[in-house]
Design goal:
The complex is a heterotetramer. Chain A is mainly alpha-helical. Chain A is built from 13 helices and no strands. The chains are: A mainly alpha, B alpha+beta, C mainly alpha, D alpha/beta. At the B-C interface, helix 4, strand 9, helix 5 and helix 11 of B face helix 2, helix 4, helix 6 and helix 11 of C. Bound molecules: adenosine-5'-triphosphate (ATP) (2 copies), magnesium ion (MG) (2 copies) and nickel (II) ion.
């Protein structure tokens, strides 16, 4: 970037060009680009991130569009075709019970694995995203408030400590038993459980984000541009909106990617302990937990959801890595 | 020879938390304590009574039970010793009753000691139990794993409120059984060794035993059937295909037996509509708008393929049944009409009864009332499979079904404040399993007496879950209570069973659930017993060489 | 520093009281009933009797107060008695006999003092969960260090991938998978942990190792995944610092530069992260303990929860909260000790 | 070219692999360093000074660079010549710290924070000299004495953060000298330090060089320092060497246009002698511009009386205030419309706090501030916000004072948005006007700060400050972080604006030469107090307070003929500004030397 056309002028022998050229600012020569274009340029260079984004996109797209392409009802019982194997098993085992009506096989009640996988993905992704967003909103809110308003710092951080020392699992189970019924009454069995899990996971996982954001805000607050903003009369909430939030975006992104993964995994752990979604409502975690018993005979039933979870988590993490780099103007600027 | 076979490993996936059945009614605790504590008599695998500490089982015939059925006289075997070497006397037996009947103690087996007026101990080996009314079945106290004999000397200071502070005694009770506790780790593992003072000098064959608890049924099954780490695994509630594939491991064998546990649908005869004011929902004040119609209940039952349910949910540990009282043979009705699924018949029946699908949405209506039901049960994998299947069938006959499952601790928790207990029955149909202790169904059948329903005035306590009310039924119950003769009792019980099942379809039995346990191929002498503790004959277990 | 520590300690008392109150009230709200596991054959009157015997009917505040007295007054007395009577450390002191048979915190399930059971469970948990933590840390640190030193190398990329996979696979899957492979097919390790096993010779030690290896590995995988990320990030931060250049300019070898100068600085945040993770050891690893039947604290908690054993759940969660608060404090103090720049006053 | 040169750099080319491909850090650079000679390398930021020196140490590899071409001939102790560019890292380790020592720019970060000074000093000795622990410790003590650190025994046991910046830099020098290297590379060793400390460090290095005969390669961007230190000078520009010569040649007869421009941009202390009013600098290429002194007016704009700001220090068990940092203590001054008042002083003397207190960005404890008749201290939050239209601030760090995530036009428009003074296209017009005003192309409006150079950013900051037409601008070290050439441009711009718009500046700086250039009045601060204040000419030409005198002596002058010697300098360490609660210093009293020239007579702590 040091080579710009003027250099040669200055260094040219005799230096006939106006001497002031030597002191001229080295301005950026490329035409201005939009910030998001820049972000994208930087992002594209990160191979892992591109791959992560691709997988995530593929999976998200799959679970969203899937039900229209593969219209079998995931809850429909087809007891005559139970325990079918995925179509590919026919390659090495010609006796395997396979069929195109259930390309990935069916479970012990004859429910189609493929449509369950799609429906489960919808649920898991929805839980993951919603819980992640919730915890992000709480975490960022608390973190920014605590970092920015000195008076709130003490109380909010005590609150964070309190939540950190609350044992999550009992709380979770208590909440599930407590609020399941009223929520179900209002939002239906799946909707109620969804809200419950999302809320519980959300409100029990915002603390790290809050701490990180608070730390960053405290540091940013000392940066001169925040002081400058104050000196030009920017109101506190505008400072937060214009100056602080955009600058804590990258740590938030990182928490977000981790949050999505933990939410999906927490949901599956809840399912494993038997307090998750209703039994006829598939999620990846539940499929995995249910299939562990038949792992030897029907490995695909654990592998399919297991791989789906892992790929999502991996994808999200790599995506997060890339986003962090892309969103940091210092890295992007280089 | 006592102790020659070394060590036996038992796994219970629910870990025992205490060693006396009086402070816990959990099966795991009752069974664990049956290795140490013994009653006067037990039930065999066929439901017959055999004497354990008693010389013989008292009956009217042998004079042990008085003619008026108001007293029973037990005679202890001679020369019985506690594991600490002191003799077993009638005082211990009487003490056991006093211990449980102490109002402060919170005894879990209090029901066994119902109607006891007094207990006399004319001599060291004789115990006379006097009841305050005629007891056609006087074998409540001191019979079976639930009411074994405690040593008076050990528990003397543990009565009433002090019961729960006697940790040492509760964990390490002195007993007469084949084993004594070496170390009790609550909710984890119990180490036992052979009782040196066991009455049969050749038994038990094992010198030591461990009873490991915790985990899940699947892991327990694996440890016996696949890895061979354990010799006996209790109550393997697993999907049949899973169990079958594990059994291919070749290390052990699953065994099964049937008792009286019946998985059933209960029809709500009262209106659970949330539109009713609280306190009137699911009370006899409002009959159910749909289920009051016998034809609907009948059609619902006809739509169910019990054979398939059994195959999917229980495999060899279940058999389809139409009876509330499936056993013992004396009391079991021969009703089998429901066993074949008849979807067409069900549809026709509904059609006939005026439930027709007039608007073509697949759901039948009558008088503007949609045939739509809320079907609830506790959270449990097999029950949810059942729900899914039954919902499917009911949909086929034009009955809209909403499923709901409630955490079992809430569902069975009995908290009057919770709307989700099975007693409150804020649903149209619910599914659970129940059974009766011992072999006599009288008290079981009595649950469905008119007036015994859970209601606000009784804090929603009461066992007549369906809010069933039938004069004929109540009259038969009165007769049963007065009848001592067994064959006569059997007749009446069958009639009662038929009234509540096939004649009114109030209770729709689905599956007679047996027990599946597994033992390793090297463990001999296992006789699975559903009428008593599974470990009832642990003294007879031995090692098969090979 | 001392003032700071004392101040924090004193401040933690109201915090803990508040936490215990919150937990207690939450548990009170839960609709579960300790009688839920009781078979349906037991008549309601009997259940009611049993409930009364457990003291369930009393008002919540009274129960809370009783619990407080038991935990903060009776239990310490029992503990001091035990110290002066049986313990190796203080056994020579005259027996104190402070405990006069007051009611201790009694579990509803087992009718025995909660603390006794907890003490009984701690060894298993420490052995397995604690060891896995140690193993995890020992694996994670070198991986983190090397990944950072060779950033974007094949090793780094592979490490990232493996740790992410480790992070995303739940233990209820890895556990049974290992059991099927190593216990069922290969028959190398037992699938069920024997908590009564006593190590007294080489053979029994080998057995202990073989029964610990699977749960330890399953747990260590997760610890490793997270810690190595921390270590890597922290190393990367420090590798770019000026003092590293100074150290190199002095002519120190790479080993000294990285393993002494950089590592020492990078360890400061990592050690506090490690310290913050310690309470989780005592909390057990619920799912893993369940899968391998290591009946430790985690299994105790979950069974108590499902049995609605309120005193047990309450006490366990409180102990857990206590440990978290204490280790937070320890982490802060460690930070101050390790980093000479930080001074608390 | 000297045959016996210690180090000879020939045609050095260093490349960096970046995301945009290969970038050359330096290209075709050749020069050499003879024994006992000080070679200064000058050039602005990014011109490749550090890269050249790091290449010589072969440390550039650790920063991702690669020596693509050229030879680095080093004359080893035993007489062999060695091409360092080809030496392997094991051999390099032996040379580094042993035969070549290096001092880095940032004393704050160059030391490992978790090891004691002693440990870090002895490390190199034990590696290169095989000394035992005791021997190394003895030698370390000796070194500490050599670099004149007070209480060396105690310092050895301390951690870096317990030392002041000057002391830390001495430790770094001691470390570099530990093994008596033949060549000492100093990469901007004084840039981060105060003038007074800088003077001491420069003198120290000069003495050590003379005592030990070490060759020194001295890197700096400050021509005044070059004039003080160099025997020979190498001028670098954008990765290339553009000129080389003895220090006199360079200063008196620069050849290359860049060198000329550079020298023209350097403000020299004493240049303004005899001129009562500030005037813009004459920059190369702007010769035709008329230079007009700035008169300003006599109407007072800002009156500050008895301004006192203290920061509480909390401590103890109950977190009560146990002491106060007396950052600003009883400060009074008047600033006239259209004029500039400068505050100078060492780091930590309370300059920034004074500036911020006036805008009430930190809350003063007491005092009276009146801006154009408005009592700033008495304003409520809303009124205060309104009043801030009248007073704006420019900060030191152009990188930190702009939000990296916001477009430049938005940043300039933000004050107008806040106050709704302009809206829509009117606002955009004004933003364009402001860009023109600070001589930035309008095409920059949609850019982000990271795309700009430091000087451009500082101009954005000025544009932002101008947006609301303020009367007062507090410029807190507004030009300190900039390269000289850029600094000159920004200073000129500020002065132009003052002349045109009648702005008043409160100019905070530690750079005496710049202050001399821009101020009408100067206040010298020490430990929160103004020890001397008055018209610039009076204070600079006739300093009365001993502190002012010492300060003036310490300032290096960009003239090789006016070198300072170590004995001129005597500085006492600044006492702590922290006093226990309840401590009330006596009020400041001043003596009027000449009209408007006041000197503190009460105790200043100096
Ligand atoms: N690690 C690196 N990666 C890429 N480019 C680099 C790196 N280090 C230096 N450069 C480039 O090399 C050129 C010379 O940098 P160098 O650090 O030598 O400048 P300098 O003259 O020391 O500046 P300063 O006065 O700011 O210290 C710059 O253009 C810089 O961008
Ligand atoms: N927010 C604060 N809290 C506590 N003390 C502070 C605070 N800000 C400044 N100080 C202290 O007040 C004193 C004066 O600081 P100030 O920043 O005004 O100095 P300065 O002259 O601007 O120094 P520099 O040249 O380094 O910018 C210093 O001792 C500093 O440590
Ligand atoms: Mg540099
Ligand atoms: Mg400052
Ligand atoms: Ni400078």
């Amino acid at each position: 970037m040091t080579d710009s056309p003027q250099d040669d002028v200055i260094l040219a022998e005799g230096a006939k060009a106006a001497p002031i050229e030597a002191l001229k600012d080295k301005g950026p020569m490329a035409p201005p680009r939009s910030k998001w274009r820049d972000v994208w340029e930087q992002f594209r260079k990160h191979k892992g991130a591109m791959m992560g984004a691709f997988f995530l996109f593929f999976i998200t797209f799959g679970v969203l569009i899937g039900p229209y392409l593969w219209t079998l009802d995931p809850q429909a019982l087809d007891i005559r075709n139970k325990d079918m194997r995925p179509i590919y098993t026919a390659i090495w085992n010609s006796e395997a019970d396979v069929g195109w009506n259930h390309p990935l096989g069916s479970d012990q009640l004859g429910r189609d694995n493929l449509s369950q996988l799609i429906a489960g993905g919808r649920a898991s992704m929805a839980v993951g995203w919603a819980a992640m967003l919730l915890s992000l909103i709480i975490g960022t809110g608390v973190g920014v408030m605590a970092g920015f308003f000195k008076k709130l710092d003490g109380p909010l951080m005590r609150l964070t400590d309190l939540f950190l020392s609350l044992p999550i699992l009992p709380l979770l189970l208590v909440a599930v038993t407590l609020f399941r019924q009223p929520l179900r009454a209002n939002f239906g069995p799946e909707g109620g459980m969804f809200i419950l899990i999302v809320t519980v996971v959300g409100i029990t996982s915002w603390m790290p984000t809050a701490r990180i954001v608070r730390g960053d805000v405290l540091a940013l607050k000392e940066r001169e541009f925040v002081l400058a903003a104050r000196s030009i009369g920017t109101q506190p909430f505008k400072i937060i909106k214009r100056h602080l939030l955009p600058n804590v975006l990258s740590p938030i992104m990182v928490s977000a990617t981790l949050g999505l993964a933990t939410a999906i995994i927490t949901e599956s752990a809840l399912s494993f302990l038997g307090v998750g979604f209703p039994s006829d409502f598939p999620t990846w975690g539940k499929m995995l937990a249910d299939a562990v018993a038949r792992m030897e005979d029907f490995p695909e039933r654990v592998l399919l959801p297991g791989v789906a979870i892992s790929l999502t988590v991996l994808g999200v993490n790599y995506l997060g890595d890339g986003l962090r780099d892309a969103l940091d103007p210092r890295i992007r600027g280089r | 020879e006592r102790g020659e076979d070394g060590h036996v490993n038992i796994i219970y996936w629910q870990a025992p938390s205490i060693m006396t059945p009086y402070l816990s009614s959990g099966t795991k605790d009752i069974e664990a304590s049956s290795l140490v504590l013994e009653p006067l008599g037990r039930y065999t695998e066929t439901g017959e009574l055999v004497p354990y500490l008693a010389e013989e089982i008292p009956t009217v015939e042998n004079g042990g039970v008085s003619e008026d059925l108001k007293s029973i006289t037990w005679k202890l075997k001679e020369g019985l010793l506690w594991s600490d070497g002191s003799p077993v006397t009638s005082a211990d037996v009487k003490f056991t009753a006093d211990y449980c009947m102490d109002p402060e103690g919170g005894c879990a087996q209090l029901a066994k000691f119902d109607h006891i007026a007094s207990i006399d101990t004319p001599d060291d080996l004789t115990v006379v139990v006097n009841f305050d009314e005629a007891m056609p079945n006087p074998y409540g106290p001191f019979m079976g794993g639930q009411s074994p004999i405690l040593q008076k000397a050990q528990f003397e200071s543990c009565t009433g409120a002090a019961a729960s502070t006697c940790t040492e005694a509760n964990f390490n009770p002195i007993g007469t059984g084949p084993f004594v506790v070496d170390e009790f780790k609550p909710n984890d593992v119990i180490s036992l060794s052979a009782n040196p003072n066991y009455r049969d000098p050749a038994k038990p064959a094992f010198a030591t035993a461990t009873l490991k608890g915790g985990g899940d049924a699947e892991a327990a099954a694996r440890a016996v059937l696949q890895t061979g780490e354990f010799d006996y695994a209790w109550n393997l509630q697993l999907a049949p295909d899973v169990l079958a594939s594990m059994a291919e491991g070749g290390q052990g064998t699953p065994v099964s037996a049937f008792g009286t546990l019946v998985e059933r649908l209960e029809m709500n005869m009262t209106d659970p509509s949330p539109d009713l004011p609280e306190g009137e929902r699911s009370t006899v004040a409002h009959p159910h708008p749909i289920l009051s119609d016998f034809n609907v209940r009948k059609a619902l039952s006809m739509a169910i393929d019990r054979g398939l349910l059994t195959e999917i949910g229980y495999g060899q540990a279940g058999r389809p049944t139409c009876n509330l009282v499936p056993a013992p043979a004396l009391y079991a009705s021969d009703n089998e009409e429901c066993l074949t699924q008849d979807l067409e018949g069900a549809k026709a029946l509904l059609e006939e009864a005026g439930w027709t699908d007039s608007d073509g949405d697949g759901v039948r209506e009558k008088d503007g009332m949609k045939l739509s039901l809320l079907y609830q049960t506790s959270t449990n994998a097999v029950r949810q499979d059942f729900q899914a299947l039954i919902k499917d069938w009911w949909n086929q006959i034009g009955v809209e079904t909403e499923l709901r499952n409630v955490d079992s601790s809430v569902f069975f928790g009995g908290d009057p404040g919770s709307p989700d207990t099975f007693q409150k029955f804020y649903a149209d149909v619910e599914m659970y399993a129940n059974n009766f202790d011992g072999t006599d169904p009288q008290s079981y059948l009595q649950m469905y007496r008119c007036g015994n329903e859970p209601k606000p005035s009784s804090q929603w306590q009461g066992e007549n879950i369906n809010r069933f009310c039938n004069e004929e039924y109540d009259a038969l119950l009165d007769e049963l209570a007065k009848t001592g003769e067994l064959s006569k009792r059997g007749e009446i019980a069958k009639q009662l069973n038929d009234i509540i099942t096939k004649e009114t379809m109030t209770i729709v039995p689905l599956v007679d659930r047996g027990r599946v346990s597994a033992h390793s191929n090297t463990l001999g002498g296992v006789v699975l017993n559903t009428w008593d503790s599974e470990l009832w004959n642990a003294a007879d277990w031995y090692r098969i060489d090979g | 520093m001392l003032t700071y520590a004392i101040r924090r300690l004193v401040l933690s008392v109201p915090t803990l009281l508040f936490i215990s109150f919150v937990i207690f009230m939450l548990l009170q709200l839960a609709p579960g009933d300790p009688m839920a596991q009781v078979p349906l054959t037991v008549p309601p009157e009997v259940k009611q009797k049993m409930r009364e015997a457990l003291g369930v009917g009393e008002p919540a505040l009274v129960q809370y107060w009783k619990w407080l007295v038991q935990v903060f007054w009776t239990e310490p007395k029992v503990f001091i008695d035990w110290l002066t009577r049986d313990s190796f450390l203080l056994g020579w002191l005259p027996d104190t006999n402070l405990y006069q048979g007051e009611l201790r915190v009694i579990s509803w399930q087992t009718r025995s003092p909660v603390m006794d059971i907890v003490l009984q469970r701690i060894p298993q948990t420490l052995w397995v969960v604690g060891l896995s933590y140690v193993v995890g840390v020992l694996i994670a640190l070198p991986i983190g260090i090397y990944s950072a030193y060779r950033q974007y190398s094949v090793f780094d990329q592979a490490g990232t991938f493996v740790t992410m996979v480790g992070f995303s696979i739940p233990p209820f899957f890895t556990g049974p998978l290992l059991i099927v492979i190593f216990s069922v097919y290969l028959g190398w390790f037992p699938s069920i942990y024997d908590t009564t096993h006593v190590v007294n010779d080489w053979e029994s030690f080998k057995y202990q190792l073989s029964q610990m290896i699977m749960p330890v590995m399953v747990l260590a995988l997760q610890t490793t995944a997270q810690l190595s990320r921390y270590m890597r990030a922290s190393m990367l931060d420090n590798l770019n610092q000026d003092y590293v250049r100074t150290a190199r300019a002095k002519g120190l070898s790479e080993a000294v530069v990285v393993m002494v100068h950089v590592l020492r600085n990078s360890m400061i945040p990592v050690i506090t992260v490690i310290a913050l993770g310690v309470p989780a050891i005592f909390g057990g690893a619920i799912i893993t303990e369940n899968v391998f039947k290591v009946n430790g604290i985690g299994q105790l908690l979950i069974t108590a929860l499902f049995a609605n054993d309120l005193p047990m759940v309450m006490t366990l969660t409180f102990i857990f909260a206590f440990l978290i608060v204490m280790f937070n404090l320890i982490a802060d103090i460690l930070y101050g000790l390790l980093d000479p720049r930080i001074r608390y006053d | 070219m000297l045959d016996n040169a210690i180090a000879r750099i020939e045609k050095l080319r260093v490349e960096f692999e970046t995301k945009d491909g290969t970038v050359a850090g330096v290209e075709d650079v050749s020069f050499d360093v003879g024994p006992g000679e000080t070679v200064c390398i000058v050039g602005e930021s990014g011109s490749g000074k550090s890269v050249s020196s790091l290449s010589l140490m072969r440390l550039i590899e650790f920063g991702g660079g690669e020596i693509a071409n050229g030879r680095l001939i080093f004359d080893r102790k035993d007489g062999d010549e060695l091409d360092l560019a080809k030496a392997d890292q094991d051999l390099m380790r032996d040379i580094r710290g042993n035969e070549i020592g290096m001092i880095f720019q940032e004393p704050m970060t160059a030391l490992n924070p978790v090891f004691t000074i002693e440990r870090q000093l002895t490390e190199g000795l034990r590696v290169h000299r095989d000394m035992s622990k005791e021997q190394a410790q003895a030698r370390a003590l000796e070194l500490m004495q050599q670099v004149r650190i007070p209480e060396p025994e105690r310092r050895l046991k301390q951690y870096p953060h317990e030392l002041s910046g000057g002391m830390r830099q001495r430790v770094v020098i001691a470390m570099a000298l530990a093994c008596k290297p033949r060549l000492l590379i100093a990469d901007e060793p004084t840039t981060a330090l105060d003038v007074t400390i800088q003077a001491e460090i420069l003198a120290l290095m000069d003495r050590l060089k003379r005592e030990t005969g070490t060759a020194v390669m001295f890197i700096t961007h400050d021509m005044a320092v070059v004039a003080q230190m160099a025997d020979r000078v190498v001028v670098m520009f954008r990765g290339r060497k553009v000129e080389e010569g003895t220090v006199e040649e360079i200063f008196e007869n620069p050849q290359h246009p860049y060198t000329k421009a550079l020298l023209a941009a350097v403000p020299k202390l004493g240049e303004m002698k005899g001129k009562p009013l500030p005037e813009p600098m004459k920059l190369l290429g702007h010769e035709q511009d008329e230079i007009k002194p700035i008169t300003g007016t006599d109407q007072p704009l800002l009156q500050v009386e008895n301004l006192t700001t203290r920061f509480p220090v909390k401590g103890g068990f109950f977190r009560r205030t146990v002491a106060n940092v007396h950052a600003v203590e009883d400060v009074s001054f008047t600033l006239n419309k259209g004029q500039t008042l400068s505050l100078v002083g060492e780091s930590g003397c309370g300059k920034s706090t004074a500036g911020r207190s006036i805008l009430r960005l930190v809350e003063p404890m007491r005092g009276r501030i009146s801006l154009d008749g408005v009592d700033v201290m008495g304003l409520g939050p809303n009124m205060l916000r309104d009043e801030r239209r009248q007073m704006q601030m420019i900060f030191q760090d152009p990188f930190a004072s702009l939000n990296p995530q916001m477009q430049l036009a938005d940043q300039v428009a933000e004050p107008m948005r806040n106050f709704g003074s302009h809206a829509g296209s009117e606002m955009m017009d004004r933003v364009e006007m402001l860009f023109d005003r600070v001589e930035l192309p309008r095409s920059f409006m949609r850019r982000y700060p990271h795309e700009l150079s430091g000087g451009q950013r500082q101009r954005i900051a000025i544009a932002r400050a101008l947006a609301l037409n303020p009367k007062l601008i507090v410029a807190d070290e507004a030009v300190s972080a900039l390269d000289v050439s850029v600094q000159a441009q920004v200073v000129n711009l500020m002065m132009e604006l003052q002349a045109e718009l009648g702005l008043s500046y409160l100019f905070i700086s530690h750079d005496m030469a710049v202050v001399e250039r821009v101020s009408h009045n100067v206040g010298v601060m020490y430990l929160g107090r103004i020890v001397e204040i008055g018209p610039r000419a009076a204070v600079f030409e006739n300093p009365q307070h001993p502190y002012t005198q010492a300060l003036m002596k310490a300032v290096p002058v960009a003239d090789p003929h006016r070198r300072k010697s170590e004995k001129d300098l005597n500085f006492k360490p600044i006492p702590s500004p922290i006093h226990p609660v309840g401590y009330e210093p006596e009020p400041n009293t001043y003596r009027e030397v000449s009209p408007g020239h006041l000197v503190l007579t009460s105790d200043s702590g100096y």
